[in-house]
Amino acid sequence: MSCVGYFHYKVVSSHRQNQRKSFICASSILITIFSLYIILVPEFIINTSEIVTPVDFSRIPIHAVNYVIFATFFSVFFLISMCFGHIAWRKSDPVRRKQVAIYMIGLLICSIPGFVVDLFLPALGDYRYIWIGPIATIIFLFAIMYSIVRYRLMDVKMAVARSVSYMLLLIALAVVYVISAYVISILVFQRSLTVDSHVNLMNMILAMVLAVVYQPVKKIFDKFTDRVFYYGEYDADTFTREISKILTYTADLQLLTRRVGNYIATSLKAEKVAFCIPEKGIYGRAGRRRISVVEEDVHRIMDYYYKNCSFPEVILANQVKDPELKKLLDIHRTKIVMPLLHQNQETGILFLGEHKSLGYSSRVILKCWNRLLGNWLCRFGISLSLEEINELNKSLQRKIDEATKELRFSNRQLQRLDEAKNEFISMASHQLRTPLTSIKGYLDMMLEGDLGKITPTQRAVLREAFSSSERMVRLINDFLNVSRLQTGKFNIDKQKIDIAQILRDEVALLKVVADQRSVEMDLKIDKKVPLITADSEKIRQVMLNMIDNAIYYSNPHKKVIISLKNSNGAIEFTVKDSGIGVPKSEQANLFGKFFRGTNAKKSDQTALVLAYFWRGKLSYRTMVK
Question: Key word Transferase present in the record (predicted)?
Fold first, then answer.
């Protein structure tokens, strides 16, 4: 039922609209016919049968009844015109209101005296002031002319400007031609203007000269008429220059649309300007009143444009045929819609609101759009490409940030694991060192005979066990030192020490290990080695690690040369062996923690040999390629 009711309403509404249009059309035709009848048939008002000769214009007999009809007709017609003018004034935009106001003021100035002297006084038989009516009509014509020139009523300003320009151009060229022809004929041909071959040649030359100067002279008159008829409007060259400057020095698309919108709003005196580029989420607005257009409305406008216009035409709100679209533009007080296309695809729309004073002329619309279009399409393509590059950069930056965040998280996890490992090593080293010290002490007591006599075989086994316990203690000390270095608890206890004696003690301690490996140690200590200030335990650990490493990786029946000497004010400790060496490609990692060369065949060393060193210089040389 609701569908039927709606259909009935639409049919009745459409029928009523058609009836109203038909009534208005019929009424207009009848009023026009009646007006023509009154004008063309004066006998309708004047009683010609009572006119005497000669005619006395101070008293003309009239038909009383017909005159009442005549007066009533024009009075009602005047009131209806004023009502329609008031309605148009209320519903119009500011520019149209000024046009309607000037028209109504001119009509009142014309009609009030006309009603008095041309309608009411003649009814009383007084024709003395009938001459005032035509003068009042002239005032009305001046009001119409002022509205045309000042507020573009009927939009004939451009036609007048171009007409004046061409008229001045023709007059100027005609004057130049006549004067030139006269002067040349008198001075050159020594005769008056006659038609012969010389004069024809002269006319052809003058015509060619005038054809050449036609365009420059036309531009001069065009500029002159533009200044006269379009004074106060934007200058086309300035507009192009400023738009080009904005488009050149602005790369960001959002900022570009906002700056262009602000300049257009200022130069064209628009209430509001808006750039809408939905795909990029850009809605640049400018002006006193802001336009808020959703993406759906933009697509609706573009659909209308594709169906009813062709690029680069513009959409004028007062020429839109779609009632819904016209209503949408009226709601937003939009007068002009300019589509923005790039590579034959819609990219957005430029909206121009109402003009602040005069209204837009077709000249402004065309020149503004054509000048903006050429610069915009080129710059828009560049800005669009830059926008895509920026989006790509932002996307890459986001991915890099995410990857960096993940790496930092993983790094923190590894740091926590490393800290846990260091704590475990430190704790385990402390726990292991106590029993190993006891084992080492008991083995030493057995070797010294404190627990009774031992056989040579038992002594050899005990020495091996003692040597292994020594290596284990050193290993635990290495672990502790590495852990302390990483946790910042590596303390240096400096005091005066005899580095030569420390070296002798360590060599004596490692003598058992060297004998087991069948490696000979050759110790060379300079007698001039002074006492130094250092941590004896750390120095002892470094020396022990270097010598032990040389013994461990040397082949049997080889010699390890150990030297300590005073060299140029510095103490130089050197360990030289004939072991397997370290490949050159791996030597950079030699002083790193837990490093072992790939050519090392033995795997029971800890690889902590050169993990730490406090100040000084630690170097390495090898013959391995």
Answer: yes
Question: Which residue(s) pair with 525 in the sheet?
Answer: 564
Tokens matching residue 597: 């060369």
> Which strands sit side by side in the sheet containing 282-287, from one edge to the other?
282-287, 272-277, 345-353, 334-342, 315-316
Instruction: Identify which of 582, 579, 570 has the alpha carbon closest to the alpha carbon of residue 547.
Output: 579
Alpha-carbon gap, residue 588 to 115, rounded angstroms? 114
User: Distance between CA atoms of 68 and 44, rounded to whole angstroms?
Assistant: 11
pLDDT digits (tens, 9 = 90+) for 194-250: 445 555 556 666 666 666 676 777 777 666 666 555 544 556 667 667 777 776 666
Q: Does residue 545 surpass a pLDDT of 70?
A: yes
582, 597 in Cβ contact below 8 A? Answer: yes
619, 395, 605: which is closest to 517 by C-alpha? 605
Please identify which residue in the block is written with the tokens 């009534």. 23
Q: Which helix (H) or strand (E) holds 287?
A: strand 282-287
Q: Across the beta sheet with 570-576, what order do the strands follow?
A: 520-525, 559-567, 570-576
Please give the structure tokens belonging to residue 20: 């109203």
Contacts of 565 (CB under 8 A, 6+ apart): 524, 525, 526, 528, 529, 571, 572
Long-range Cβ pairs for the range 64-67 (8 Å, 24+): 67/123
Residue among 179, 105, 173 nearest 139 (CA): 105
- 3-state SS class at 322: coil
| Residues in a beta bridge with 574 | 563
Tell me if 335 sits within 8 A of 356, measured CB to CB.
no
Peptide bond into 530 cis (omega under 30): no
Question: Ramachandran region of residue 581, left (φ > 0), alpha (ψ -120 to 50) or beta?
Answer: left
Q: Judge contact between 537 and 497, C-beta under 8 A.
A: no
Average pLDDT over residues 520-536: 86
Contact 565, 571 (CB under 8 A): yes
For 350, the 3-state DSSP assignment is: strand
Sketch out the chain's domains with CATH numbers.
Answer: 41-155 (no CATH), 157-229 (no CATH), 236-393 (3.30.450.40), 491-625 (3.30.565.10)
pLDDT of 617 higher than 80: no
